[in-house]
């Protein structure tokens, strides 16, 4: 079953367990990555945390206005899908929080306006969110 954003509102906060419940997942672990691509769906969901726990990879992510400076995962998961969203029907949705262990705020859909692809380190994306 595709993930629905019908009951998700821009500017509202959500925990991963709440989203898992809304989307019919058995547990929030399916949403534990920073990039989630629900099976058989056109959604790419970003969970962005600026101030991460010390044991996590310290990606440099920063939201300024409606521009997100975001480093993709070190394994480059879903990068090609994100880069190609302008020519596909894939949608990028962004949840953001300033600090770990807080709920995420849904910022809305995003459009990648710039990307610096890197091979040996995280690629750098600049999506505009909430259009």
Query: Radius of gyration, rounded?
Result: 14 Å
Helix/sheet category? mainly beta
Q: How confident is the prediction overall: mean pLDDT? A: 92
- Please give the alpha-carbon distance between the first and last residues: 26 Å
- Total strands: the figure is 8
**Which stretches are poorly predicted, pLDDT < 50 over at least 5 residues?**
none
> How many structurally independent domains?
1
Q: Beta fraction of the residues? A: 35-45%
- Give the overall form: globular
CATH topology: PUA domain-like
Going by CATH, the homologous superfamily would be: SRA-YDG
Query: CATH class, please?
Result: Mainly Beta
* Major β-sheet annotation: 8 strands, mixed
The percent range for helix content is under 10%
DSSP summary: helix tally: 2
Order of helices and strands: EHEEEEHEEE
The CATH architecture: Roll
Provide a descriptive summary of the structure in words.
The two termini are 26 Å apart. The chain has helices spanning 16-22, 79-83, and strands at residues 13-14, 35-36, 43-51, 62-64, 67-71, 91-99, 104-116, 124-129. The protein has a single domain, classed as PUA domain-like, CATH 2.30.280.10. The protein is mainly β and 131 residues long. The chain is built from two helices and eight strands, in the order E-H-E-E-E-E-H-E-E-E. The mean pLDDT is 92. Strands 1, 2, 3, 4, 5, 6, 7 and 8 form an eight-stranded mixed β-sheet that branches.
